[in-house]
Design brief:
Largest sheet: 5 strands, parallel
CATH class: Alpha Beta
Number of strands: 5
CATH architecture: 3-Layer(aba) Sandwich
Distance between the termini: 29 Å
Order of helices and strands: EHEHEHEHEHH
Number of helices: 6
Strand order of the largest sheet: 2-1-3-5-4
CATH topology: Ribose 5-phosphate Isomerase B, Chain: A
Shape: globular
Length: about 160
């Protein structure tokens, strides 16, 4: 699977770990981020680039910032993107199964700098990613109807 990945400075370390792990699993990774951690990276810039590339290529994307929320807000501004900030494997599964999400947004900031427990462990983050990548859209009529309504709003 081709995965477009990007992170700001707060998500850079997690992005590096996930990209390596995903490559070992046989995925093709396109990294939109800087090659080194830069505290001046702003999540709107990276999120927009990843979301536009995902929309254009019909790939899957992963975005990482401090909480996963900022990148999710930006990505959802791009037509054709249905991004989710999924804090658990169940949320990841349901977002793919019901909403056919195409970008997964993750919390990546150093836990020492943020609220304890806000950021999942690397093990749990890998479970979230694995679940999201391996869950198919259900294609249930009600979900197709709802996604079509979203597409109409994007017009």
């Amino acid at each position: 699977m081709n995965i477009i990945i990007g992170a700001d400075h707060a998500g850079f370390t997690l992005k590096e770990k996930l990209a390596l792990w995903l490559k070992k699993k046989g995925h093709k990774i396109t990294d939109i981020s800087n090659k080194t951690r830069d505290v001046n990276d702003d999540y709107p810039d990276i999120s927009q680039q990843v979301a536009q590339k995902v929309a254009k290529t019909k790939s899957k994307g992963i975005l990482i910032c401090g909480t996963g929320i900022g990148v999710c807000i930006v990505a959802n501004k791009i037509r054709g993107i249905r991004a989710v900030a999924a804090p658990t494997p169940l949320f990841a599964k349901l977002s793919r199964q019901d909403e056919d999400t195409n970008i997964l947004c993750l919390a990546g900031a150093d836990q020492k700098k943020h609220v304890q427990g806000l950021h999942p462990s690397i093990t749990n983050t890998k479970k979230i990613v694995h679940t999201w990548l391996n869950t198919r859209f259900s294609s249930a009529t009600r979900h197709i109807r709802r996604i079509n309504k979203i597409k109409k709003i994007e017009q």
